[in-house]
Specification:
The protein is α/β, with parallel strands linked by helices and 215 residues long. The chain contains six helices and 13 strands. The strands form three sheets. Strands 1, 4, 5, 6, 7, 8, 9, 10 and 11 form a nine-stranded mixed β-sheet that branches. The structure holds 1-O-pyrophosphono-5-O-phosphono-alpha-D-ribofuranose and uracil. 1-O-pyrophosphono-5-O-phosphono-alpha-D-ribofuranose binds at residues 82, 84-85, 107-109, 114, 116, 136-145, 171, 197, 205-207.
Length: 215
């Protein structure tokens, strides 16, 4: 796909990130290892996505002398996983910034139409003044992410970024058509969707693999 059309898209490029994504693609990677890897991948993506977060200066005393140093104010940062699979990314993000708030948006994709259906929403009150990081490992058709951003905007969010681990070109295009100004961080950009709207080569159903519910 022509990525230069979408300046908001950041496909991350680090050998360790690629390595960990290869491990979660493998159908024989067991659930505990899969979950741990998703956490580590989220940390790596979060490190990149949080680059523009504001710092404030505080005076402190080191064992040597007084100094003024930068700190990140976590209370104005909010991580919002799309349930279920986005939950797998929260631990990694929270490890980076334990004081960040966590909201939740519950969506599931209809198996036939592939349309998202909302079933849960709990978000912090100060969304309008927060940097919001929406989390979901998979961007397939883009329907779920587009719907979740709309929910965040309806609740007042003004500064939103979206982090996914694997994206399909179809989802990237749909997301960028809907929200050309929202930064989109991608661990790996895959080839295409199949006729069931699964990402190819992908990793299968992310929620099932994180929570061990694979049939
Ligand atoms: C998966 C995934 C995304 C969505 C992506 O969730 O975690 O939320 O599909 O597909 P889309 O881009 O075509 O909308 P799913 O609906 O399977 O729910 P689950 O996390 O509860 O398994
Ligand atoms: N949701 C998933 O979990 N995997 C896909 O490949 C597509 C949507």
């Amino acid at each position: 796909m022509e990525l230069s059309k979408y300046p908001n898209v950041h496909v991350l490029d680090h050998p360790l990130l690629k390595h960990k994504i290869s491990l979660i693609r493998d159908k024989d990677t067991p659930t505990p290892e899969f979950r741990q890897l998703v956490k580590e991948i989220a940390m790596m993506e979060g490190y990149e996505a949080l680059k523009s977060v504001k710092t404030t200066l505080r005076d402190i005393q080191t064992p040597i002398e007084k100094t003024t140093q930068p700190y990140v104010e976590g209370k104005n940062i909010c991580f919002v996983p799309i349930l279920r699979a986005g939950m797998g990314m929260v631990d990694g993000m929270s490890a980076l910034l334990p004081t960040a708030k966590v909201g939740h948006i519950g969506l599931y994709r209809d198996e036939v139409t592939h349309e998202p259906h909302a079933y849960y929403c709990k978000l912090p009150h100060n969304l309008d003044t927060s940097d919001v990081y929406l989390l979901d490992p998979m961007l397939a058709t883009g329907g779920s992410a587009i719907d979740a951003v709309k929910t965040l905007k309806d609740h007042g969010a003004k500064k939103i970024s979206f982090l996914c681990i694997i994206a399909a070109p179809e989802g990237v295009e749909a997301f960028c058509e809907a929200y050309p100004d929202i930064p989109l961080y991608i661990g790996a950009l895959d080839r295409q969707l199949n006729d069931k709207a699964y990402i190819c080569p992908g990793l299968g159903d992310a929620g099932d693999r994180i929570f061990g519910t694979v049939k």
